[in-house]
Amino acid sequence: MTALHELTITQAGQRLRSGRVRATELAEAAIARAERVDQTVHAFIRVTAERALADAARADAELAAGRDRGPLHGIPYALKDIYDSKDLPTTCHSALTAGHLAAEDSEVERRMKRAGGVLLGKLATHEFALGGPSTDLPYPCARNPWDLERFTGGSSSGCAAALASALVPLAWGSDTSGSIRTPACFCGVVGLKPTFGLVSRRGVFPLSYSLDHCGPMSRTVADAALALEAVAGHDPLDPASARVLARDYTSRLTEGVENRRIGYFRRWLVDTPNVSPAVIERVDHAVEILAANGAEIVEMTGPDLELLNACGRIIMSAESFAIHEDNIRNRPLDFGRYSYQRIAPGASLSAADLILSQRVRRELVRRMEQCLAGLDAAIAATAPSTAPLLSAFWDDWEPASLSHTIGFDVTGHPALAMPVGLTPERLPVGIQVIGHLFDEASVFSIAASLESFLADDMVPSPMTSL
């Protein structure tokens, strides 16, 4: 019988509704597991045990009374600690904001409460969702459950570590240059960066006003789709929120890929300096599996990867400096070393730099739309290598490498990261499934099919069995 901590959202929901388990039991099991396992993984900044038990008791009472709020009712989840939850600290993993107490819920948290979710706690991040695996911050950095000496990816590091350790079935992260998808890749879980504006960012500490995305992370594609259904949709109080309604993201999960036209950004991968041959092999294999099951694969070059990277980095650097300028000037020593070194150079950028980058961005959106025209979706690698060792990080922030993720933050297209197998060293490899703007349903459909085709190629991390 599957242990409680290994249940997917769908499986847990079935047990809750059949009476085989109570929400309180799920919460108690999750709290006990966090106490036992998280002292090694450091995924949580704070476990909100009292809040979780209260949420779970409420969910049990409502379900017993016949009030069913939907698939997330009674399900444990956790928030990256840049999301506000009323009366809880939002630390952003920084000494600068360690004393901040949220006065209101973020909009994602408000909608999760409406869906009947059970908040288990706040998860580690890199400082202000930027930084890196610093050792000079108030809390330890999260560890990769596949190898505790390796990087989780960032900045939704605690989210990925918690999922890969089976501490929670659902976590909410953020993505500005790949901060959902890279940790998902390195830790072998699923992470969705939705279309820009589909999920409200209100009440989430910003990194870059025009690049930030909020999205779900989970252990399965179906769970991510259920989570998106609970929170997607227009928020009139978020200026960047798109005027669209939430859609059905789950009914097409079993459609298959026969006769689907799927692009493949293969040149991006094979032309990346120092790319891992094992990553190429696993990504190629995933694409071959799609073709073997009836998909038509179209190899594409896509917009210039270096231009996508440069455009995104200039925008992020300028906007992050604008957000942190006062503290950079007046409290520089209160930042961690990595985040200071990444934010401070924004002072050297001019208004002309930012305006030109935004003009280039519009052209890149047009080019990406041209690439995707006539396709159902596209495939790209998430990262050109597996998770590096933490010992490989320099004392100073390393020069930026070529990112395979930031381009879709620049263009705003939905991109779902998912595992496609392990290298001979038993480290996860991931891909991205990219869709048309606001067509998350097709992304989920293709990703769910691929997940089922590759089920035998993935196993849980070693931490799951603890």
Summarize the structure in words.
This protein has helices at residues 9-18, 23-41, 49-64, 107-114, 157-164, 181-187, 221-231, 266-270, 277-292, 305-330, 337-343, 351-372, 406-411, 440-453; strands at residues 44-47, 76-80, 118-123, 170-175, 190-193, 213-218, 261-264, 296-299, 377-381, 415-422, 428-434. It is of the alpha/beta class. It has one domain (4-306, 353-465): Amidase signature (AS) enzymes (Alpha-Beta Complex). Strands 1-3-2-4-6-5-10-11-9-7-8 form an eleven-stranded mixed β-sheet, with helices on both faces. It comes from Paraburkholderia phenoliruptrix. InterPro entries: Amidase, Amidase_dom, AS_sf. Residues 25-443 form the Amidase domain.
Task: Briefly summarize what is shown.
Residues 25-443 form the Amidase domain. This is Amidase. The chain is 38% helix and 13% strand.
Give the SSE map:
Blueprint: H1 9-18, H2 23-41, E1 44-47, H3 49-64, E2 76-80, H4 107-114, E3 118-123, H5 157-164, E4 170-175, H6 181-187, E5 190-193, E6 213-218, H7 221-231, E7 261-264, H8 266-270, H9 277-292, E8 296-299, H10 305-330, H11 337-343, H12 351-372, E9 377-381, H13 406-411, E10 415-422, E11 428-434, H14 440-453
Parallel strand pairs: 2-3, 2-4, 7-8, 7-9
Antiparallel strand pairs: 1-3, 4-6, 5-6, 5-10, 9-11, 10-11
